[in-house]
Design goal:
By secondary structure, this protein is α+β, with helices and mostly antiparallel strands. The chain has 9 helices and 12 strands. The strands form 2 sheets. Strands 3-4-2-1-12-11 form a 6-stranded mixed sheet. Helix 1 (3-24) runs parallel beside helix 4 (70-92), helix 3 (44-65) packs antiparallel against helix 4 and helix 5 packs across helix 6 (139-150). The longest helix is centred in the first third of the chain and has 23 residues, at 70-92.
Length: 332
Amino acid sequence: MSTARRTAFLSTLVIGAAVAVLAVWPQLIGAQRMLGIAQLIPFRGLLALTFAVLAVVAGIFAVLRRRWSVAAALAIVLAAASLGNGAVLLSRGFGASATEGDLVVASWNTYGGAASPQSIARLVRETGAEVVVLPETDEVAAASVVSLLAGDGIGMTAATRQADPGDDPVPTSLLIAESMGPYALDETAGSTPGVPSGVYRPVNGDGPTIVAAHPLPPLPLIMRDWTDGMDWVAMRCSGAQVILAGDLNSTLDHLAGLGDGEATVGGCRDAAAEAGAAALGTWPVRLPTGFAAPIDHVLVGSAWDVRSFEVRTDFDDAGSDHRPIVATLSRR
């Protein structure tokens, strides 16, 4: 190999390795919430597949040239990026069967009510959920779900957090089992910017604090509102009894650095990560779970153990672009 080709090979290898690190573990340099990376990193499965295909193409080109070249260096770093993303997904896990616990928490972004009250009621019946967070579900739909469940002898109460003036007029609703007692919105806790989130506390002081969360997505023109929404989530994840659920428009990568100590966000742990199911994607439903973005979460305080976490694919034809998630928790 000539000196020029050797230099080109090594330069490509070094630059490609740096890019591969960004594509696999951007939090190493705090880049997980940067524009561009923030939009790509949720789709690790697709990234792994894309890098693998490109590595094969570059490898074939290098073999045809029959000598070390820039193509060979590209094949090496692209293969490394593919394997790296695949390894992260495998380490986060693709889930296990559901088990019993003390409390079942579900969340489902219904896409502005595209998923019907009948579908939501079916989710509650089949899972036995006692807490259900419903981003993009209005009070009419929430009341309809309560009525449908009452006909089955399942008692639930509904609360809806409306958008603040000037924000996106997409409400966030919450269903709570009557057996958990009355809950009230904590007006002092505020909301995520742009779309409504709420903190609900037991009126009698006995029971978990429930946070129904829905921060804005990381769109280029509202990146600051997106990161402010994640900061709000981290601040509300305080206290042993807290349970936070919803469409966080963020993956574990985006949330890196927001936890206290070993926690994922604030003082909370991520239920999917605890259950070994954090690689399962929830949005959009047109992609298989291995390729979709895992942006819907249940976060729990230290008073709770996670027994299981599910991403339900049997509601993919219900009208929403999100899949429901279900976490089963036990009190410590």
